[in-house]
Design a protein that fits this description.
Layout: E1 2-6, H1 18-22, E2 28-32, E3 38-42, H2 52-56, E4 62-66, H3 67-70
Antiparallel strand pairs: 1-4, 2-3
């Protein structure tokens, strides 16, 4: 099974993250920070590995990986 993983070095940390908004399983957690930056994480228990978020991530920071490798 695959899950989504965010590369923190590539993520632009936008509060308007279209990838997070695209997740119908509500696997993304967006916590507002300062200066229009947010902390974005993915709940691997909710993530189904469908890949929709990958298509919506403009910077290309989200990749799908095998769940065994995610641990």
């Amino acid at each position: 099974m695959r899950v989504a993983r965010i590369d923190e070095k590539i993520c632009d940390k936008s509060p308007f993250c279209p990838a997070a908004a695209s997740c119908r399983f509500k696997a993304f957690r967006v916590i507002l920070g300062t200066s229009f930056r947010v902390n974005i994480s993915i709940d691997e228990e909710k993530c189904t590995g469908c890949g929709v978020c990958v298509r919506y991530c403009g910077p290309g920071a989200i990749k799908l990986i095998e769940k065994e490798k995610a641990s």
